[in-house]
TrEMBL record:
The lineage of its organism: Bacteria, Pseudomonadati, Pseudomonadota, Gammaproteobacteria, Vibrionales. Cu cation binds at residues 206, 256-257. Its main location: membrane. It comes from Vibrio comitans NBRC 102076. Belongs to the heme-copper respiratory oxidase family. GO terms for biological process: electron transport coupled proton transport; oxidative phosphorylation; respiratory electron transport chain. This is cytochrome-c oxidase.
Length: 470
């Protein structure tokens, strides 16, 4: 039984979750602006601050570090308390982590549009901000592991395993990839060069996806999916296998981004092989989460929070099938640098991460604010279909654009000349880029409905709820 005297710290969790909601809208709205600029270049407004190259890293940083990291920090601190039946290790430290991370995001919001960038994907922030990130991350690690150490039960729930992996691996690869020599207050140069720099960058870049957008979100879902399904995890043993499979193989897969490049062939081959092996733990974990939801089929038929989670799992299956497929040399030859890659990334980012985050918001926020239901079930239903239409239109449009683009780039006449010019390939994909914009706009429209629904939910009269077991 849960210790009735345990006091859980939820105020800081609320702040993290609200920050995550705000950044989900901001980050994805910037993404819609970028999609519009690709179809209507005039929307760059001839401004050095509002053009694609300046806004794109703001979009990725806003979504990854604003939306995802905020919700993972908040959820991890909540889950560590509830599963350990203990309070936070240090409340003051929790607030330092929250405000420190918001300062990082504010500095990103100011510096990236001004052109201060390392030019490394998902690691664009310059060295002074990197030092602040390291400081905040160390404080977060102390807070999380200190809370685990305080737990009043011997067992460490599997969600905390995934959170621990995401904290440790991100710390390691972020520090190594961002090693740089400062040239001025806002300019630095990587200590790595050439092929070495590419290898280290994609060791970071792919594992930022693997441990922020995958392992961290899986940890969150292993707690919330059984809660919303009102059933235990289908197979706890499979969840542990899922954990060790991801930790064991994911960190090796990053060099599949460097196929047909100047890095050694054996390094490329490691990335290909490890990507293919990842099919097994990824789909095993997806099966585990899906079966957890399917244990309560009656509720699944009408509960849109469960349906959001179920949809996220399906998109996780799609993305983790597509990733290894694109790592195979023939497919990589066709797809690399085309819109297909963008479609793959966003089927995971919007379908898996986005749907998971939305489901967590809909379930978690009413609980945090002591409400027994959402303000409007009709609005969540509308959101569900807008989100699905948005992701489907976005992904399918870019699959078609990317495959067509790839074939046009590779097509040669009998004498070896290229059949199509670059401009002809651009003309071919133009209508599909419009559909990309339209799909993204639908997804963001759904987010605005969610914000309104959750705001009205929080403002509803507070009800006295029974204490919920961890």
């Amino acid at each position: 039984m849960e210790n009735e005297t345990t006091v859980y710290s939820t105020k800081v969790v609320k702040y993290f979750v609200v920050a995550s909601v705000i950044w989900s809208v901001v980050g994805m709205f910037i993404g819609v602006i970028l999609a519009a600029q690709l179809y209507w270049p005039v929307l760059n407004f001839d401004s050095e601050y509002f053009q694609f190259g300046r806004l794109r890293p703001l979009h990725t940083s806003g979504v990854i570090y604003g939306f995802v990291v905020n919700v993972l920090m908040g959820a991890s601190l909540y889950i560590a308390q509830r599963t350990g039946q203990c309070g936070l290790f240090n409340k003051s430290l929790a607030w330092m982590v929250f405000w420190g991370w918001q300062l990082v995001l504010l500095l990103a919001l100011l510096s990236l549009p001004l052109g201060y960038t390392t030019s490394k994907e998902y690691a664009e922030l310059e060295w002074p901000i990197d030092l602040l990130i390291v400081l905040v991350w160390v404080l977060y690690a102390i807070l999380f592991f200190g809370t685990l150490a305080k737990r009043k039960v011997n067992h460490i729930f599997v969600a905390n395993w995934f959170f621990a992996a995401f904290i440790i691996v991100i710390a390691l690869i972020f520090v190594v990839n961002n090693l740089a020599l400062p040239a001025s207050m806002m300019k630095s140069y990587s200590v790595f060069a050439g092929a070495q720099d590419a290898i280290v960058q994609w060791w970071w870049g792919h594992n930022a996806v693997g441990f922020l957008l995958t392992a961290g979100v899986i940890g969150m879902n292993y707690y919330f999916i059984p809660k919303v399904a009102e059933r235990p995890i289908y197979s706890y043993r499979l969840s542990v296998i899922h954990f060790w499979g991801l930790v064991g193989f994911y960190t090796w897969a990053g060099t599949h981004h460097l196929i047909y490049s100047s890095v050694p062939i054996w390094v490329q081959n490691i990335g290909i092989v490890m990507s293919l092996i990842l099919w097994l733990p990824s789909w095993g974990g997806a099966f585990n989460s899906a079966m957890t939801l399917l244990q309560n089929k009656e509720k699944l038929k009408n509960d849109y929070i469960m349906l959001f989670f179920f949809s996220a799992i399906l998109y996780y299956c799609l993305a983790t099938f597509e990733g290894p497929l694109l790592a195979i040399r023939w497919f990589n030859m066709l797809a690399h640098n085309t819109e297909w890659i963008i479609g793959h990334v966003h089927s995971g980012a919007l379908g898996w991460v986005g749907m998971s985050g939305i489901a967590v918001f809909y379930y978690f926020i009413p609980k945090l604010w002591g409400k027994d239901k959402l303000y409007s079930t009709r609005l969540i239903k509308w959101h569900f279909w807008l989100a699905h239409a948005g992701v489907a239109i976005y992904a399918i449009a870019l699959w078609v654009a990317g495959i067509g683009e790839g074939y046009m780039w590779l097509a040669q006449s009998e004498n070896g000349e290229l059949v199509y010019s670059f401009v002809e390939a651009m003309d071919f994909k133009a209508p599909w880029l419009f559909l990309r914009f339209f799909g993204g706009a639908l997804f963001v429209l759904g987010l605005l409905l969610m914000v309104y629904n959750l705001y009205k939910t929080v403002k509803m009269p507070k009800l006295v709820l029974k204490r919920e077991a961890a």
